[in-house]
Design a protein that fits this description.
The longest helix has 44 residues. By secondary structure, the chain is an alpha+beta fold.
Amino acid sequence: MTRMKRSTLLIIAAVLVLLLAAAAFLFSRGKPPEQGAAKPKEAAAQPRPALTVTVARPETSELTITLAANGNVAAWQEASVGSESTGLRLAEVRVNVGDVVKKGQVLATFSPETVQADMAQARASLAEAKATAADAAGNAARARTLQATGALSQQQINQYQTAEQTAKARVEAAEAVLAAQQVRGRNTQVLAPDDGVISSRTATVGSVLSAGTELFRLIRQGRLEWRAEVTSAELARVAVGTPAVITSASGAQVSGKVRSIAPTVDPQTRNALVYVDIPGVQQTSAVKAGMFARGEFQLGRSGALTVPLAAVVPRDGFNHLLVLQPDSRVAQLKVETGRRVGDRIEIMTKLPEDARIVVQGAGFLNDGDLVRVVDALPAKRSAP
């Protein structure tokens, strides 16, 4: 009985020791977690950045002052090449549309048989008139020698002299007819009146044409011009000699220079035409007569405040910049933009001094967002 009591007491003592040890262990493990739990709460109290961005400062650059305009491309001058002879058959056509020709080059020829026959007849008529004139001159000379002797009356002498003058006039008429036939002979070849490019052709081999029929149309000297429409309010900014850059519908650009300005303004559109010479069009196919093109007049240069184009964020129909504040938050600023050159754009709104503008990631931020700033990545160099 006494042994059973002792074993029971030993078991109760062991249980108490285990309970005390467990309580001490739990007490030692419980306190540090409470201290460590305070740290996440403090971290959660601090806001996290919305985005990692890069920033840049505005730069002052020298930009070109331009004036935009639209207009048509047309030939500087066109020459109409036609037939000068009547009733001749077109035998040969030597050029086609797009060919570059020189002044005096043969473009087409007419059949010369009819003209050659008329020339032969004119030469025969001239020879006959000369023979008749020689005979009349001899008779008149003999009549004048007999005038003093009285063998011939004055009336007969006058008749011989009149016949002589008439024969001379017939010789001159025959010479004129022969000259006209020679001109017809030269007109059997259609020659280019000037250097240029053939823009149209209506000549057909075998056709019999009348005088004045157009055979070809020629762009003189291959020169084109851009006829830009400029408003009357902006017309005073353009002067003769102002350079211009013309952009065709395909995106190709050519340079030109203002040759003249129209002296009147269209009362319907209130626009005036400015004629810009486009040189060297024969070496490029980017610009053709009849095209519609846009362009810009280069009016000079001026200083401007520019930022990277990626920093401008369009919202609600306006352009905005996101300016970095000292507390690493961004402030949205509505700005007015101007000229664009490459990857930079002019800002016409006054910006704060030493302003830092968000560039990369600006389109994903709102006013008041907290950001983290990193340095911009250097541009990759192309392999040699």
